[in-house]
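Re: folding output
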Amino acid sequence: MKHLKSLVLAVATATLASQAVAGGFAPVVAAPEPVAPVTVVEPTAPRSTFGILLPLALLGGLVALAVAADEDDDSTEND
């Protein structure tokens, strides 16, 4: 009977000890706080004058070609 009391005491102690370390030895991690979403604001692109100069230059080139071609037609008719 004496061994039975020791055995019951050992089982009870082991049961209580396993419940005490059920969480393990890892540090406690608190729940993260909600973070407000980050909004990304892209800066406005600087305006470029190249966007207007290129079409004007092409238009000038076409006018120059038209004037040059017109002069060639006049010179051949006079010959």
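--- second protein (sequence, then structure) ---
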Amino acid sequence: MSHVHNFSAGPCILPQEVLEEASQAVKSWDNHGLSLVEMSHRSKAFVAAMEECRALTKELLELPDRFEILYLQGGASLAFLTAAMNFLPEGGQAAYADTGTWSAKAIKEAKHAGRVNVLTSSKDDKYNHIPEVADVDGDNAYLHITTNNTIFGTQYAHMPQTTAPLVADMSSDMMSRRFDPEPFALIYGGVQKNMGPAGAVMYAVDRARLGQTGRSIPSYLDLEVQLGKDSMFNTPPVFSVYTTLLTLRWLKALGGVEAIQARNEAKSGLLYGEIDRNPLFEGHAQIGSRSHMNATFRLVDDSHAATFDDAWNKANINGLKGHRSVGGYRASMYNALPLESVQVLVDVMKEFERTHG
């Protein structure tokens, strides 16, 4: 089978060596005589894998000692409510930045826990940029942001500078670039973009900030309860966690987040360079808000869409269609996507210009 260039927005492309090792573990994990997915999650082998995954996550993100790591079920969609339940005080309010579909969903879920103060929004501009956030005053327990917006192709170039602690959904750019963790009280994200297969959500939480909301939290949503059980309050998503561990090992061997950031910037630079140069295409996101993970663009003349679609399909490119709410195209360039795949797409765009320009 010819190589497929996978630009799918998620679940993510994974390194080939990770896929091979994970698939082998499903058949028979190391020398345990059992499949990974049929062993007890409380076996010494899996407990060791979970602890290594938690430790390696903290190491690669360069998190201070005050952070602890959890890998739980539910994904970011459950984490929207979990974050608010654990950090929004009873009778209090929290500030939110509305920068896309997933931030809007986070706002909706947080309202189940208390008052939500939407400080800024780019909705009226079809979420084509990251709006400025003024300083957040002490009436707000935290400022929640979505660091990268997969559907609209926008990303915070720099984290907001506020006096309130930050809470962030980093589902789609976790482990893709370095950032200063100091302002954060909570970082969370589904692993299915840069880290592993769907099924797990990672929480990096400042434990000292927990237990201060004055509310009764259901056990499963209580991050203090989850930390007390070391991510084992209930059966964790074992395959997702183990495959994430393999991906983190792969990332560390490459040189860590700093090394992958350089690769990601090279990939996005190559594609955005072609979008801006080629008169047949235009980008959706404003230049200062462009995502390194998800490049959104469209044809200037939609009457050529069928021909262009045929061209990239013939080049074995997969997952390039844009989300229905934006249209056009979306090239998701997660960590494991090689530069060569981006070059194939750029070559298709150049050839399309030659024949239709």
